[in-house]
Task: structure prediction
Amino acid sequence: MKIAVLVKQVPDHEALVLARGDGTLEIEDRWATNFFDEIAIEQALRLEAVQGGEVIALSAGAGRNTDALRRALAMGADGAILVSDPALAAADGLGTARALAACLRELGPDLVLCGRVALDDEMGLVGPAVAEILGWPHVAAVTALEVDGKAFRAVRLVEGGRESIEGQLPVLIAAAKGLAEPRVPKVMQVMKASRAAMRTRTLADLGVDPGSVAPLVRTRVFERPPARPPVRMMEGEPGDRVRELASILVSAAGGRR
Amino acid sequence: MDFRFSDEQEFFRSQVRDTVDRLVRPKVREIDEKDVFPRDLWDEMARLGYFGLRHEERWGGMGADTVTSMIFFEELARGSAGFFMSVTVQMLMGTYFIGRFGSDAMKERVLAPAIEGRKVTCICFTEDQSGSDLAGTRTSATRDGDSWILNGNKQWITNGPICDVATVMATTDPKAGLKGLSFFLVEDGMEGFRKGQVFHKLGTRGAPTGELVLDHVKVPADHHLGEETGKGLEYSTDILNHVRVMTGLAACSIAEEAMRDAAGFARGRVAFGSPIATYQLIREKFGRHYAKREAARTLLYRVAWMIDQGLECRREAMAAKWFATEACLESVDEATRIYAGNGFSMEYAPQRFFRDARFLLSGGGTHEVLLNFLGSQYLRG
Result:
C-alpha cells in the first residue's frame, strides 16, 4: 500500500507571535512540524508496519517546509517530496491544495493522511480541498482507522458519541488527537534525515499553472486582542464584598435575577 | 569565516529540542522536588541512541563531532539540570577513558551497555581534601603483580550512588604530584568498593551524587586506562575542554530559560498602571542577558569548533566557561528580582534556575582556579 502524508511546518508552540502596528504578523524564527501532521505520519507508519508498502511525505511551499519533511523521514517515512515554487509563497489553502493534488496524481497513493488542522492558521482546509480536487472521499477528525485490503473503517468523535464510517480506498483521512501517539525519532534516524536528499517538484514539473494557485482569500489585517478592562478588587468585610459582587453581576445581566 | 550552523546542525537542534520538550520538560519540577533519579527517562534517552553520540559506531555510537554534541548538550540543559548532569557524565567523562583506552573486551562489556543505558558510569576526581587541585589527590594505586590495589575516598561523584562502573583518578606516585596521576576502571561488586554517603544538594536534584569508598580494591592490570602511568592529567586535557564548553552551554540554556520565563511574567505583571516590561530598569536586565548570552555562545561554539579542528584551546575553554557561567549567575539572579516577592517563592520557577545555576561554578574547575591560571599565563615571562 502506498500512503502519502501531507505535512506542514508551523511556528513552534513557544515562538512569539506578535501583531505589528501595520497589521502584519511578526513570528519568531522557531518552527516545528504541525502536531496533527505528526499523528498522521505515525498512523501511516503503523499501517505500513502491518501491511507493507511505503510512506511518502509531501509538503508544498516556498522552501521552509523541508524540516517538516525531514521530521517525517526521521520518524521513518520512506521518502519525501517538496512541492516548491515561488508562486506558493502567497498561496492560500486552495492554491496549496491544487499544488499538492497535482503531486498526488503523479504519485498515485492508495491512501492520503493529513492532520485535521494546522496549528498556525487553524483553517483545516487543505486536506478536504485536496480530496475534492482529486474527486476522492474524505473523512475529517478521525480518531481510529483500520484498513483491510481496499476497505477502510474510520471512527470520529462527534458530540455525544462516536461515528463509524466505512468505505473503499482511495480516501483522504484527516487525523485528530487520539489516532496515534507520534513516536520520538531515534538520533540515528535524525542524523540520516538531516542529510537525506529531498525530491523537489516545481509547479511547472507538475503541469500546474502558477496563476491557478494565486490566492482567492486575502488577509487584510492582524489585530491585537483588545486590552482587558482593569481588574477591580472588592474591599471591606466578606459579607459586604459578596453583596456588592452580586449586585454588580445582576446589573451586568440587565437587572434580571 | 562562517558563523552559521549548517542546515544539518539546525535540523538536529530542532529535533533535540522537540525531544527535550516532549520527554524531559514535563518532568522538570517533579525531578527537582522529589530529588529522585528519573530511571524511565534515562532508559528512554538511551533507547533513542543519544548516549552514544560521541562514541564509535562499532560500540553503538554515532561518532558525532564536537559541535554537534554541544548542540545536544545545550538543548538538553533546557530541561532538568539534574538529568542533564547524569546524562553528560555518562556521555562524556564516565565513558571517555574506557572508549579511548579500554580493550575491545572491556568496551563490549562496559561501553556498549553504557551507551544502551544499562550500565551507569561516573568519573571520580574530587576527594574530601582536593577538587580543582588535582595534585592533592590522595587516592592511591599500588602495583601488586598483575593487579593494582586502590585505596581512597572519592566525594561529590555524580551518578556515584547508582553507578555500575567508575573511572577513578588515583596517584601511582604521591611524590610526583600532577605527574603521578592515572585512571583506573572500578566495577560495582569488586571487593572493597563501596558506595558511601549520598549528598543532599541545593540544585541539580535528581542526579544522585555522593561518596565512593575504595578499601584495598584489587583491579586487573588492564583496568589501568592509559598507555603509561602518570599521564592522567595529559589524557584529561581533551575531555576537560569538552566539559568546560558543555558547562558553559548549560549556563547559556539555564539563563535563557530563566529569562524567557521572567519575560512572560514581566509582560503580564502590571505595576503603576503598566506591565513592568515597559519600564527601562526591567528592560535593561533583558538587554544585558541578551548581550552576554550572545557573547558567551559565540565564544563557546568557537572553542567547540577549535576542538574539532584539533587546535590547542585549553585557555579559550577556561575563559568561555568562566564568562558563560558568570553571565548565567547574573541572569538567574535578575530573574528572581523581576519576579520580586514571587521570586522568593518555591511555587514559581526562578528559585529553581537560581539553585541549579550554582552547580556550574565548580564543574570544570572553580572560577578562582581558572582565573588564577589564566592570569598567570597572561603574565608569564
Notes: The interface with chain B takes residues 14, 31-32, 67, 70-71, 74, 184-188, 190-191, 193-195 of chain A (CB under 8 Å). Chain A has one domain: 2-213.
